[in-house]
Automatic annotation (TrEMBL):
GO biological process: ribosomal small subunit biogenesis
Family: Belongs to the TRAFAC class YlqF/YawG GTPase family. RsgA subfamily.
Keyword NADP listed: no
Listed name of the protein: Small ribosomal subunit biogenesis GTPase RsgA
Organism of origin: Lawsonibacter faecis
Gene3D superfamilies: Nucleic acid-binding proteins, P-loop containing nucleotide triphosphate hydrolases, Probable gtpase engc, domain 3
One Pfam family it belongs to: RsgA_GTPase
Function: One of several proteins that assist in the late maturation steps of the functional core of the 30S ribosomal subunit. Helps release RbfA from mature subunits. May play a role in the assembly of ribosomal proteins into the subunit. Circularly permuted GTPase that catalyzes slow GTP hydrolysis, GTPase activity is stimulated by the 30S ribosomal subunit.
Taxonomic superkingdom: Bacteria
Binding site for GTP: N114, K115, C116, D117, G162, N163, S164, G165, V166, G167, K168, S169, S170
Start and end residues of each CP-type G domain: 65-220
Length: 295
């Protein structure tokens, strides 16, 4: 028996990495997973048995560190959130929602601003750096900044996400020329075919990292932060942490309360306005959702 990672799931087969250059093994899952209603996921760390015909059998799924429903992946170490100050300009709210999702699921959030050859996006860069995130400025076009990004994903399991046309495929191709992912004009990509279900796959980098190929913001399960209650949300904004104990009222929502230490920090410029605005928007969503759900 060996240990490996599921890189791809397709038609009942799970493609498990062959460590140290050994070929990927196409495995079936033991029947008991079906009886126990457990579906192996891409990213799962598994124990498998190689069979004499070259195929294999997944015997055991090791405990997951986290899991996402859309795309269906497990054990993501970090979300690499790609943004751009050039067309198509990224709405910071979408970045903040992804960051909260990452924090909620227990993975690191990295912010990577692409298309710096066209626009350096100083404000975005300053916002995320000062909020305490690893923030990169890159250009898939010129190669600027890519070596820092490459180093940050070495040895980790990363999922790249970002609005359509921001350059996710271009960055991955520039990092690993062997990938040959399809890059398109923004307008071409809006046509038919873009909405067909895509299978997630983990791609292996030469630096030991694995990356999930490019799900867009819309395909990540971010419509609502699954299970994240309005009172939990404050903890997904890491730059609020130093102030959370300083509010006058226990259970302060940090929206418009008197004596709120978060709002004071906002007024003093210690918290970015766009970040707090995203918090308020997510807070309202969480409130509505759970009011509805609790009835
Ligand atoms: N100037 C410039 N153009 C870029 C850069 N990165 C990507 N592009 C262009 O932006 C367009 C979209 O790039 P993609 O890599 O296909 O974007 P994507 O994020 O993978 O898009 P989806 O697959 O729709 O989610 C292409 O025309 C790229 O050539 C960059 O750093 N600078
Ligand atoms: Zn407060």
């Amino acid at each position: 028996m060996s240990e490996g990672v599921i890189l791809k799931a397709l038609s009942g087969f799970y493609y498990v990495d062959g460590k140290d250059g050994a070929p990927t093994v196409a495995c079936r899952a033991r029947g008991r997973f079906r009886h126990e209603k457990i579906t192996p996921l891409v990213g799962d760390r598994v124990v498998f048995t190689a069979l004499s015909d070259g195929s294999g059998m997944v015997d055991e799924i090791l405990t997951r560190k986290n899991q996402f429903q859309r795309p269906a992946v497990a054990n993501i170490d970090q979300l690499v959130i790609i943004a751009s100050g050039a067309v198509p300009i990224t709405d910071p709210f979408l970045v903040d929602r992804m960051i909260s999702l990452a924090e909620w699921k227990g993975c690191e959030a990295l912010v990577c601003i692409n298309k710096c050859d066209l626009d350096a996006a100083e404000a975005l860069y300053a916002t995320y750096r000062s909020a305490g995130f690893q923030t990169f400025r890159v250009s898939a076009e010129t190669g600027e900044g890519l070596s820092e990004l490459y180093a940050a994903i070495a040895g980790k399991v990363s999922a790249f996400t970002g609005n359509s046309g921001v350059g996710k495929s271009s960055i991955l191709n520039a990092l690993e020329p062997g990938f040959g992912l399809q890059v398109g004009e923004v307008s071409d990509k809006l046509g038919r075919g873009r909405h067909t279900t895509r299978h997630v796959e983990l791609l292996r980098l030469n630096n030991g990292g694995l990356v999930a190929d490019t799900p867009g913001f819309s395909s990540f399960d971010i419509d609502r932060l699954e299970g994240c209650r309005k009172d939990d949300l404050q903890h997904t904004f890491r730059e609020f942490a130093p102030y959370l104990d300083g509010c006058r009222f226990v259970g302060c929502a940090h929206v418009k309360e008197k004596g709120c230490a978060v709002l004071e920090a906002l007024a003093e410029g210690k918290i970015a306005h766009s970040r707090h605005a995203s918090y308020v928007r997510l807070y309202e969503q969480a409130k509505e959702h759970h009011d509805w759900e609790d009835k």
